[in-house]
Amino acid sequence: MASAQTLTETDLFRAYWDDGLLDLLGGLALLVAGIGWETTLGPLATVQAPLWIALWIPLHRKIVEPRAGFVRFSLARRQSTTHRLAWTLALGVGVFVLVAAVALLARGETVQPSARHLVAALPAALVALAAGIAAVLTGARRFLAYAVTLLAAGAATVLLGLGPALPLALGGLVATVSGGVLLRRFVRAGDAFEFEEGA
Question: Taken in order 108, 111, 114, 119, is the CA torsion positive or negative?
Fold first, then answer.
């Protein structure tokens, strides 16, 4: 009976991402990118995205660790995570460069109008790929839901002839709301636990 309740390192690693902070920051990055895309900034609105993700470490230490504690995973797990994060970061940089290049290309006169609609869905498709990688990396299946939302919004962009801003903003809104709800629950549960311990 006791063994059934014992958490494996894999279970603990998945639970490590359940506070919603990564969802919230990633969602805000997409939301700002989507809204900013409709301004004069255009594709350059995506430049701010890495800044939100960079906030994850200090905010995790300030908000999450005081309530959940500090977790030190095995060397193999840490090396695997570092390796995957490096590849994910490289992919993210590549995605940004590709999105900016494609968006600038789509504004050119040489691109057929029908092709522009497909190009407009590309940023959402690339971010959906990143969300899928995040799901594999963290074990959090909700990132797959974000990927599906982005792909569906991208498909709607193609069908309705809209620009790339809507899928990014919609995907960002879904992730922001989800992350905000999860983080609020986490903080409340952590504060309630501390109150009970101190009582």
Answer: negative
CA distance 141 to 134: 9
User: How far is Cα 81 from Cα 128, in angstroms, rounded to an integer?
Assistant: 20
Q: What region does 4 belong to: left with phi over 0, alpha with psi -120 to 50, or beta?
A: alpha
pLDDT band with cut points at 50, 70 and 90 for residue 146: very high
Provide the 8-state DSSP code for 7.
P
pLDDT tens-digit profile of 185-199? 988 887 775 545 555
The predicted model gives 162-179 an average pLDDT of 91
Please give the backbone phi and psi of residue 176, each rounded to the nearest 5 degrees, phi first: -65, -45
Give the separation between CA 23 and CA 175, rounded to whole angstroms: 5
Length of the chain: 199
The answer to whether the predicted template modeling score (pTM) of the entire model surpasses 0.70 is: yes
Structure token digits, residue 133:
């990688």
Q: How far is it, in rounded angstroms, from Cα 38 to Cα 43? A: 9
Task: Give the residue from 170, 160, 97, 86 showing the smallest Cα distance to 128.
Answer: 170
Phi-psi region of 111 (alpha: psi -120 to 50; beta: other; left: phi over 0): beta
DSSP structure class, residue 71 = -
